[in-house]
Structures are given as structure tokens and as C-alpha cells.
Amino acid sequence: MTNDDQDVLSELSDLIEGLTTSGSRSLDEKLFKRVKSICKCSDENVRHLYRMIMTQLEKRHSEIRLSALQIINEIFLRSHAFRELLVDDFQKFLSLTIGVNSKKPLPEPNAVASILRSQALKAIEKWNQKYGPHYVKLALGYKYLKCVKKFNFDDSQSHTEVERLRAQDVENRRANHAEQKLNAVLTQMGDLIADIQSIIMEMGNCFRLVLPSPEEFYIYATNSRDPTLQLLDSDTPSTSSGITHKPVNNDKQSSLRYNKQGSLSHNEQHLLSHNELNDHGLISQSYQLAIPLSTSVEIIETADNTDVLNTLRELHKQIVDKYLPSTQKWLEVLTKHSGHHENLVQAIDLKNSLTELKYKFDKLTIISKNAQRNVDECAKNVDDETADGFIDVPEKEGLEHVPESRQHEYGIEPVKNMSLSTSTTIGEGLKLLTQ
């Protein structure tokens, strides 16, 4: 092979590389025209072209394969040498362009793969009509696609029977998996519902023990109240002889007059309301009082409630770690199946109950016994330190020297006088002893 031939083959390789990797849905006319002119020169160039095309056809990219198929179709219609080479590898060609081998599907992108399959079927049908009687393998390949693989050559979006079976198999596996998950959920619900209901009841009882509601306190009925309480609440004035009644605010009461029907007029009612407010020191009737309410509840742990609080902690842990995730999983599965409405409603009710109990426990602030003991001790120490009202001052070591000029400010006598007075006192004492 001469250097010129080598240069031509190298140029042909570059042309095929450029045509198949351009990403275009159609071939560049100028480049492909040069390819055809090179192939006309010799069969060796055609064979080199075939090897390059098959190399590109094996790339795992449908756009490259689509461009290679377009080149194959054009050269197949023009070169007998090329037709013989392709027919000999016809099974491989079918696998790379149509995907007859289920173990080797067409590569992505899927949209381009569908176009690749459609154009390959059209090209094969056209080849068979024109060259089928002359190429046995071509005719056999066409019958194989039509009779065995059940291709519909009239449908541009045809799919192989293998692909249809594959898609059906995938759908069947998905349905079986969903059915298995549903059965597992129904079985798990049957096993856990009793436990969940028991935990809901037990935790509710624990909350009622540590946080009793007002409805649970004993309150006297209206008809069975203590006579003393009835007397205290009675509007009838007492007739005890030790109590005298004096009218209050006669001037205000005398200003009220009943109308003909025996009821107070609107102005009188307004005056009465205004006077009553003044009696209580209220000038205006429009007051706004904002009372901040805390959403959390503090409970001090004691020996009486420690067992109940420990039970609450354990039940809360079970709800968070086990039962709430289980109910969430049930809902995810049951919402995908319309034939189990009762189970879905039951799962929703259980999840709502568990969520409410978890919320109540999270809003509960439990002060442990050790923490409360520390708070009490700190408060006691503060009270002891501030009870006497005095401030402890550390004692000074030695004597504090006071200048002689300021001794009179502190009521201190001069040192000489103090010495004389001291000596006189000692002398008098000795005289008394000698007597």
C-alpha cells in the first residue's frame, strides 16, 4: 500500500469519525460526498469504510449508531462489496440497530434509540424488496424479524416482541412487589393494632394521673350543696339581731326610677352600670388584658409520681421509635390501593392518636428530683445569707494608727493623759492594798 493510499484511508477514517459524532440527525452533504468519492476508487476503500462503520456502530450511544446507519443505508444501495460484507454480519447488524437480543438493548438516549430502530426496519424492508432474491441471508433476516420477532414494518414505532415481553415482565414484577408489600402491611397491622390501642389507653391514663382535668374533680351538685354554702351564696339578707342594715348610696338609688312596666329604662341602666363601675374604681368600660399562656406544663418529679413518669417516658420512646414509623409506612402503602378503605381509615386514626400523645409529652417539662433538690438548696442558702440583714466584714489584723491631730474626732484622749491617768489609777490601787 502506497503512502497515497494510506493517506486516503486516514482521511476516510477522519470523515467517518466526523459524520458519526456530529450529533446531527442528518449527514453533512459535503463530507458524505467526499466519502462516496473515496469509496468509488477501490473495494479496499469500501472494506475500510465497513470496518470503520461497524466500529462506530458498536459505540454505546444511539446518536452515533443512527448516523452510522444512515451511512450504511446510502453505501448499501451503491456498493455490491459493501452489501456482501454487511449480509455476512447481518445478525450483528440487527442486534446493534434493532435490539433483537434482549440481553443487549439499545443504548440511550431512548428517544434516539426509537428512531434508530424505526429507520433500521424501513431500510431492511427496502433492501429486502430490492435485493432479497439475490441475498439469501438478507431474505432470511427479514422473515426472522417479521415472523419470529413479530415486527410490524408498517409501524414506525415498532417494538420487538422481546421488548414487549420485557416491559410486561417488569410491570408484573412491580405489581407482585406491590402486592407483597400490601400483604405484609395488612399482616403487620393485624399484629400491632392491639398493642397500639393498648399503648394509647395506657398513656392516656398516665396523663390523667399526672394532669387530671377539671371534669375529674369532685364538685357538689346544685341540689346537694352544703347549707352553709347556700347561706353564703344566698342573696337574702341575714336577719341576725347583731347585724344592722344601712342604705348605701341613697342619692344614687333614688335617682333610679322604674318605668310603667316596672323595668329600668335604657338611660337608667346605663347610669346604674356607670355608678357600679365608679364604686369599684373603674372609670372606663373598655379594658384590654393580655394574659400570656405557656404551652408547656411543668411537673416536679416526686416519689409519688416517679413510676408514672417513667412509664410515660417508656411509652413515648416506643411511639417514636416503633409505632409512628409503622403507621406512616402503612399509609404510604394503603394509599396506593383503593380496595382497602377501612384499613386506611383505621391507620389514619391510629396515627393521629399517636401523634397527639407525642405532642402532649413533648410539651411536658419534667423537673427531676435532683434538679428540684438543687433549686431548693440554693434558695435556702440565699434566704440564710440575707435573713440577718448584716454584711460580714473580715477582721483587720493589728491596730489602726490614728494621727494625734484627729484623735478628738474619734473620742480618744491624748497618749500623755492616758498614761498619767493609768499611772494614777495604779498608784491608788497599791495604796488601798497596803492599808
UniProtKB/TrEMBL annotation:
The UniProt annotation puts the region (Disordered) at 231-255
**Protein known as:** Uncharacterized protein
Give the compositionally biased regions (Polar residues): 231-243
Species annotation: Paramuricea clavata (Red gorgonian)
A GO cellular component annotated for this chain's UniProt record is: chromosome
Please name the GO terms that the record assigns under molecular function.
Answer: RNA polymerase II complex binding
**Pfam families reported for this sequence:** UVSSA_N
Which terms does the UniProt entry file under GO BP? Answer: response to UV; transcription-coupled nucleotide-excision repair
